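User: Can you write out an input/output pair for a complex, sequences first and structure second?

Assistant: Here is one pair. Inputs:
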Amino acid sequence: MDTQPLYRQLASHYLHAIEAGTLAPGERMPSVRALMARHDVSLSTALQTCRHLENQGLLEARPRSGYFVRMPGRHALAAVEEPVPTVPDPAQYVGIHERVSAIIARGRQSPGAINLCGASGAPSLYPVEALKTAAMRALRNDPELFGAQAPPNGHPAFRSILAKRALAARINVHQDEIIVTYGCVEALNLALRAVAQPGDVIAVESPTFFGLLQILESLGMRALEIPTSPQTGISLEALELAVQTYDNIKAVVVVPNLQNPLGSIMPDANKENLVHWCEAQGIPLIEDDTYGALSNADTPLAALKAWDHSDNVIHCASINKVLAPGMRLGWIAAGKWHARVEMLKYAQSRPNEALAQITVADYMASPAFDRHVRRLRGNLREQRERMAEAVAAYFPVGTRLSVPAGGVCLWIELPGKLSSEALFNAALVEGIHIAPGVMFSNSRRFDHFLRVSCGMPWSRELDHAIRRLAAVVSRLLGA
Amino acid sequence: MDTQPLYRQLASHYLHAIEAGTLAPGERMPSVRALMARHDVSLSTALQTCRHLENQGLLEARPRSGYFVRMPGRHALAAVEEPVPTVPDPAQYVGIHERVSAIIARGRQSPGAINLCGASGAPSLYPVEALKTAAMRALRNDPELFGAQAPPNGHPAFRSILAKRALAARINVHQDEIIVTYGCVEALNLALRAVAQPGDVIAVESPTFFGLLQILESLGMRALEIPTSPQTGISLEALELAVQTYDNIKAVVVVPNLQNPLGSIMPDANKENLVHWCEAQGIPLIEDDTYGALSNADTPLAALKAWDHSDNVIHCASINKVLAPGMRLGWIAAGKWHARVEMLKYAQSRPNEALAQITVADYMASPAFDRHVRRLRGNLREQRERMAEAVAAYFPVGTRLSVPAGGVCLWIELPGKLSSEALFNAALVEGIHIAPGVMFSNSRRFDHFLRVSCGMPWSRELDHAIRRLAAVVSRLLGA
């Protein structure tokens, strides 16, 4: 007679079924109700059985759908290693644009290639038709459109809804403190130009968004790369060491929520510490909060600006990833640099044209916006999970992966220090366009990493692509 | 018996009628046919009569409408004096933004004020409804809109029509040499950043567009102001002297056609000389050709780029004044700096969003665009003439005025070195918002000038405004 508790006996019954493939990866586990009927057990035993298998990494719960069999291997995949907080290398002038643009262009020049290089969702994830309807309404109703210059600093209706929405990220700004920009990219340009000059040293996360490195390059500023954790974001210890070693840091730029490419989320305590530390040091803190609304959590993640009581945080964000990758709408709340940013924006590109702002303000003020964001978060979560499972299933042993709690990307460490640039070339021959790690640092420190987009709805084609990509990795490792 | 030729006798008859006010300013002269019948003279005599009065500045011919009595005084108004080509003052860092933005803001804060401060046409002059229809068509037909990132360097359809249209300004560029920007303002930013660094010296026209001075201020570059003629544009002699005196000029920025605020048009020979001289000196030449299509001539004026055989001219332009002040669409053909501008644009604001480009490309490809430009040119001409006549009629003796052969503005020199800044304040009290001369130079050299917009269709209200403005001038002169 089996001496194990009943739920363990049932669990090992299903474990065998999973190992034998009777229950295939991705397949649905019999429901709790079915287990109760089939095995004549209590609700509590049926639930314990499923939870035990979930704890073993064999099942996963999907909200309102029940338990599903995990892809093999995913549970055994190690996370990307934490960096050791050491004194960062000295700041360097950035020379990355040529590399980055060649990588992007080569994907564009391979028309059939599957695009795993970007960091946006597929067009089908966005409410394009509803936005078009809102745009048509604006065209019909607004007599000033096209014929007259747009209002200064952005359209009042758009800035008003942005200020309201910011409350959810615990930011309290008045709409007059917001300046609308052409995407977060322009916001970051303005922020950096407001606080620093060519030649100045800017502390950035490492790895970081290549767009930020290109901005520093174009402005002639130097990047001081601070080790950054795939779990908790920028290392405050390393930043502290950097300031002790190099005393001329003119700004810190951080993506606190779902950092690109890592997907890390800074814990609230770290956010608070960083804000207060920068304030104490007299160093302007620039945050890029492009992804904050795309976490698995039901509420947006808090922005650094939430802890800012001295206007030392410059908050930059955009609707690019959340609502419309094709609209180029971002904004900046520049704290004590508001007047300077206002001047720079006016001199750089004048106030944004009005149509996109009116369109988005209309949509964001409706309940459809919240429904869209919920759906988008769910879709991205599903796509990330599927992608992570496929990587775990197909990539060779030694691959490491951090599955973030939100966002559009996975950050993968290749085994055997395999060069992702070599992988990029070989993968493109196979019709797969990836973002190699060399795009995310001015050094080659991350060459054995790659960023993979989870923006596309999961499909058999995508599954095959990851399988082929994994085969290329194995082949290169063997060579 | 009168020994004068018959036409002279008739002419003095009508001269008396005009002087006595029997024929009032703006009123129609009896037609040639009416003169023949009324005075029993030949066609030739009737025509000679009118032409003689026209030559005296008493009548003006309006195409297809006949002769009209001129406003009194206009014919007697002296042109703004030509500058003497001397060695320009040394380059200075620019500090103008605060002054300019305060002037613009004070107008905005006076809601009922008549806006004579801008340099765009009134919304009613632009084909807003046709553009909205084109935008609706784009929204219906383009599935990629909003959901996907816009094409690099600008939408191919828009760049293609720009390249075709540029042929009329004698520019031969391939669409791949064009990068779409957020207005000419962003194009000028990119051009300056491509060829110069903070601290560098840039030669500019004096007076010049305050937007250019604000750009230099925001980029930390120094302005070397070159005397510029209200008739023929920048003084090549003064530019030559500047280079001999100061050897570190990093770029020359010129508005060759309908310069803002002067309205000057560089003769083709000057354009050619300037292009070749800059090439020989190895100094990049940046042109802002925002107004070239708005001359009285039937064809667009030639751009500097027309004479450029070494890719040393950076051509910047926009649809802002010609088609849609509210759309923020400009472009740049950066010659040998194309790759650098491409990098800077990508890093600064990413490719422009697609909707505005598709909309405008659609409209510009239709015959409606040519019809619109013809109508706009005619309307602006009429508005400039009416404005000039009103200034001549109401402003005190000693006022000088250059009536340009195109564009949206008049440049007025006040008598007695009256401060236009004082006038600005007093006029605002009267509900009139002007652009004082201090907006157009880093020095106070042009404080006794003002720029007046001719963008609004002529009206009794506008006539009264100019009359009140003139009264303020007289009052300040008396004080």
